[in-house]
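Sample 3 of the quickstart, ligand 2'-deoxycytidine-5'-monophosphate:
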Amino acid sequence: MIVAIDGHAGSGKSTLGRRLARETGMLYIDTGAMYRAVGLYLTDRTLPAEPELEELLARMDLRMEVEADQFRILLDGADVTERLRGREVGQTASRVASMGAVRRRLTALVRSLRPLGDLVVDGRDIGTVVFPDADLKVFLTASAEERARRRHLDAAGGRAETMQKTQQEIEQRDRADSSRSLAPLARAADAVTLDTTRLTQEEAFRRLVELVHERAGRSRGPT
Ligand code: DC
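Result:
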């Protein structure tokens, strides 16, 4: 079974996706981390035009270690997973995600994980482009204000910026991800929208599990 979870930055895709994988025995795939890894790879390099960029990406040694809800990324043999979380890497990721050469390489890489088993795949274009035949497509969203509030709570005082600034960044990233011409963030026509603005994490998770069970009942799937 493939569960595609797409949605806005900070909408809770990874928290819910990871937990879903843990509780159902599926594998969690964090495609955002893969875009972040390419962002990190390209950060200190001068960006060439398309044909050379293809070559540069072909030389990139990007590997994934997938185990239950753990998704780790190795770049040139080094585990960079923890380094990928920062805001700056996220912004770079959003920029490189608009490049055709990057999307082609990563789309192929994500698809190559399919034989691993039942997957929960978190991203922006999973239900629309990467796995259009996913068994369940969820489009996760929440108001920008609520997403900024959650980010702040997560950072637990470790943040110097105001909540307003965080909200502006989130809105800017939504705009960039939704307006790019290649595989923009979009809700697939057959996706179920889950708006968590007024839901607790527990309520959102229960709803997600209900959806998975409904689909699993209709096709083959976990339990
Ligand atoms: O989910 P995230 O914040 O880790 O993603 C980082 C960036 O990567 C996001 O701004 C857009 C891009 N991305 C994408 O274009 N397609 C995906 N399937 C996943 C992420």
